[in-house]
Amino acid sequence: MSKIKLSKSCIGADEKQAVMSVLDGGFLGMGKEVQLFEQELKAFIGTDKEVICVNTGTAALHLALLCLDLGVGDEVLVPTLTYVASFQAISATGAIAVACDVLESNGLIDLEDAERRITSRTRVIMPVHYASNASGMDGVYALADKYDLRVVEDAAHSFGGTRDNVKIGCKGDVICFSFDGIKNITSGEGGAVVTSDDKLAGRIKDSRLLGVIKDTELRFLGQRSWDFDVLNQGFRYHMSDIMAAIGRAQLSRFEELAVQRCSIAKNYAAAFKKMIGISFIKLDYTNVVPHIFPVFFESSDIRDSVKASLLEAGIETGIHYKPNHTLSFYKDSCSSFPKAEKLYSVMLTLPLHPSLSSKQIDMVINNIETFLLGARK
Ligand SMILES: *Cc1c(COP(=O)(O)O)cnc(C)c1O
After folding, report:
1. Per-residue pLDDT averaged across 280-298, rounded?
2. C-beta of 83 in contact with ligand 1 (< 6 A)
């Protein structure tokens, strides 16, 4: 019996052809493909903002924070229920990641809890679009206004979704996407920063290429800087043409991939709505392109048993995420995060990727239903 995977890249002939073309062209670095990918992302999002591609979503977050001049002594509010990438991007700047609790209903940052953690050193709030859900952003921006904070949105889950009838990335301060292998679209590895702050965008563009001033502009002209200057610490965070070629092929298949993802999530939602002992985040899939589908059980024992029983049936599951305040490096033993810990103890992430068949989805649903019915006997 073939295993049902939790997540999987969905790569076809177009991506392979695109990579072959770059390989045949003999230039693999950051050039025309990256320039085109950035232009196409801009058009897709429907924005005048700058779109800057980098080699991972983590690098996008790191550069966004760093180029906001964040450093030692500064504090960033971030929900504890996120991938450790959000926390690492913050601590890489020298700033402190101030973990915040989340809402029990959807895992998004709890703004009342966040507000209590604001100090004179708080500079940025980093909301995470957990499970592709960008609702709650109005509240985030209102809080940011009140305390004069910058907003860096971790939109790694939500590429292609909409907020207030425009694509995510269109509105807002600084929005960071991930194109890693299993996200809504992939460039193999990759990420992007979207911002209308031109000064910030300029710094991010230089910083991804070791801080070499205006190197992006020259590379897009097919040239290189020989006599150059550097003003800031930079990194080798640029995207290569190989990655951009994969990303462009994926972007042109976006509708197909998004329809698959939405249809799987809708099937799960319709089935679990009728079951006792399981809950999930209610989302409107006309606005959301789901990256993950977490569900919640009545106890951690039941969750563990369901996980084991699914695994026995060849169905892989995950847990998104272990709260960051419980990790040794980010330990916060002075405050409590009851809602994030509660969610963590009962959550399970179900398989969700475009190549799942409806038969496989039914298998996942039936296995859970059978288990829950058996547990109630
Ligand atoms: C995937 C992800 C990232 C980081 O993206 P990479 O491209 O893997 O570096 C950041 N935050 C969240 C919530 C993610 O899921």
Report:
1. 97
2. yes
Which of 160, 196, 189, 188 minimizes the C-alpha distance to 288? 160
pLDDT at 333 over 80: no
Pocket-testing residue among 180, 319, 322, ligand 1, by greatest number of atoms within 8 A of Cβ: 180
Mean pLDDT for 101-121 is: 98
pLDDT number for residue 1: 59
How far, in Å, from the CA of 156 to the mean position of ligand 1?
A: 5
Let me know: does 271 contact 325? Beta carbons within 8 Å: no
The letter for the amino acid at 167 is K
- Whether 58 lines ligand 1, by a CB cut-off of 6 Å, is yes
Confirm or reject: Cβ of 324 under 6 Å from ligand 1.
no
CB < 8 Å & 24+ apart, contacts of 219-228? 219/29, 219/30, 219/31, 220/31, 220/32, 220/34, 220/35, 222/31, 222/32
HSE-up of residue 225 (Cα within 13 Å, Cβ side) = 16
Q: Is 191 in the pocket of ligand 1 (CB under 6 A)?
A: yes
* Pair of tokens at residue 109: 């940052």
Burial of residue 140 (CB within 10 Å: 0-12, 13-18, 19+) is buried
Cα end-to-end distance, the chain, whole Å: 29
Asked if the peptide bond before residue 285 counts as cis, ω within 30 degrees of 0, the response is no
Joined tokens for residue 67: 């180029």
Q: What is the mean pLDDT of residues 94-101?
A: 98
Convert the pLDDT of each residue in 8-54 to its tens digit: 999 999 999 999 999 999 999 999 999 999 999 999 999 999 999 99
